Input
Amino acid sequence: MSLSKNRLPQLLKFATTPSLSQKLMVIGLVITLSFIFLAFFAPVFQGWGWLQNPTDSLINPIHAAPSAKYWFGTSRQGYDVFCRTIFGAQAALQVVLVATALSMLIGVPLGMLSGYIGGKLDKVLLFLMDSIYTLPGLLLSVTLAFVVGRGILNAAIAISIAYVPQYYRVVRNHTVSVKTELFIEAAQAMGANTWQVLSKYLFFNVIQSVPVLFTLNAADAILVLGGLGFLGLGLPEETPEWGYDLRQALDALPTGIWWTALFPGLTMTLMVVGLSLFGEGLNEFINPRLRKRG
Output
């Protein structure tokens, strides 16, 4: 139902006539897939001799400049910055995927229930989600990180809470507008219960914006994870993480050791830009009003 016959020619035209945003979406997709590839094959890079384990760090020289042997140089602990950067992508993707998936799995069902049932449940959930939404995402994640501690799953939980209200708001508003449609009333008249209406008739008509929200939240979650790592609240110290590496690089910057901060920061920025471009292009692809506006 979400893809009508009237929209099909518009989507075909959008796909065969690339616009600037569509080209940027492809660029963002290529960047994102590149990071997924690097994260998946990170152990291969470690096998080539780029050391990542603290016990092996003394084999490498300290603060070696970028060279043919050490592409991104080494840190003050003797870590190879290239290896840390690649493994940092792996850790970032793990945390981001778990965080966004958790927030989506919580926010989408709550939004559908709240919008469809209404009444006191809707009022209570609206108050709760608005209360969470008013808090800055990074501040909320930092507070929760103090409670749950370090680790990939703990960091994902601390980050995910801030995104639940966004999924809830989007899905609830769509549900409120769709539940008055004739096909919903027809399903109710035929005896469909609440679960059947939500799963068979409402779900696929209210989640059009969820993939866009997922990619944009993933981009933001990378920055939040970097902030947690910078404050020492993200992953354990022995785990490569861009925010933690940036914090360790601060002391070396005044002495001209620029590479330990440049490459992790540049990599994090590039991944955020890739996800943001893909999300914005996907939004235009899904939203016909944005396609008309160009």
